[in-house]
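ESCALATION

Customer reports they have been waiting on this structure for their group meeting. Please prioritize. Original submission:
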Amino acid sequence: MANKSKKDVPQSNREDLAKHMEAFIKGGGKVQEIPSGVSGQTTTSGPRQIVLSHKTS
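Update from on-call: job pushed to the front of the queue and completed.
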């Protein structure tokens, strides 16, 4: 995701996000800060090349 300043995000979106976060926390949700560079990828096995098309004879 590109680095954007708060000026680039409409005020209504920030207010919506704040309301959703507050409801999440009040409902027992917990927020975990993930360090920069950490990936959610769980496995590195499998093909590493992307095939855009298969040519058939």
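Sent to customer with the following note: The mean pLDDT is 80.
Escalation resolved.
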